[in-house]
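Table S2 (continued). Query chain:
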Amino acid sequence: MGDTALEAVLRRDRAVVMAALVVIAVLAWAYVLWLAATMVMPGSPLPDSGGGDMAGMDMAGMDMGAAMAPGFRPWALGDFAFTFTMWAVMMVGMMTPSVAPMLLLYAGVGRKARADGRPIASTGWFFAGYLAVWVVFSLLATGAQWLLARLALLDPSMATGSAILGGLVLIAAGLYQWTPMKGICLRQCQAPIAFLASRGGFRSAPLGALRLGIDHGAYCLGCCWALMALLFVGGVMNVLWIAGIAILVLLEKTVPTVQLIPRVSGALMAAIGIWIVFQAL
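Corresponding output:
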């Protein structure tokens, strides 16, 4: 295959992967927007599961309401499953754009490797490993939401009802932006080629590619988990807040400023958090 033909094939493969990522992200964001439009808002009481007229009640809607405003009644298993699904889909929507450069690199190298007779595992295995990390995080986030709701620390919009707690979360997230751990993880996310080189390159076996995706996802989680905790400050279903965090994550990973963006944003978070705490005291 000539160089021109190979370049054309590589461009086509990258276009296919990009189109798939766009579809995945759009579907995930559509689900989040639907949830935000149908959720029970503060001040809208939920039915009491212990009594009252249940005739004509949509049970799926009741589960959704309990998950969205769990302080009104204890969670059922369906509420936990619904909330976990919400977190998982939201993480896919937020994190897919930031991992796109790595996946496009993987697709291009994969096509060239096949043309050279040295095939590697498909991009899907790597992406599955990456998403697996965020699925585990979603499970932990669901547990955190359940605990906060049980302690009556969340309002029906799934934002903390305590100004002091919200301020402390902002301070903690801001300080984490300055830590060496944040810097180490962010550098791995900002430089896909360096990440791959440090791990011996791409894998030919599917399980090897899956593990590589898990490794990359773990660095991404180490980079972004504190930012995700801010969802409990602005509201887990506050679409503008979700979008703002997703944009910050994308900028941190793709804009070549090393650690300028996380440190400036971290300083702002900490300052706002301190102001909120002092106002609440």
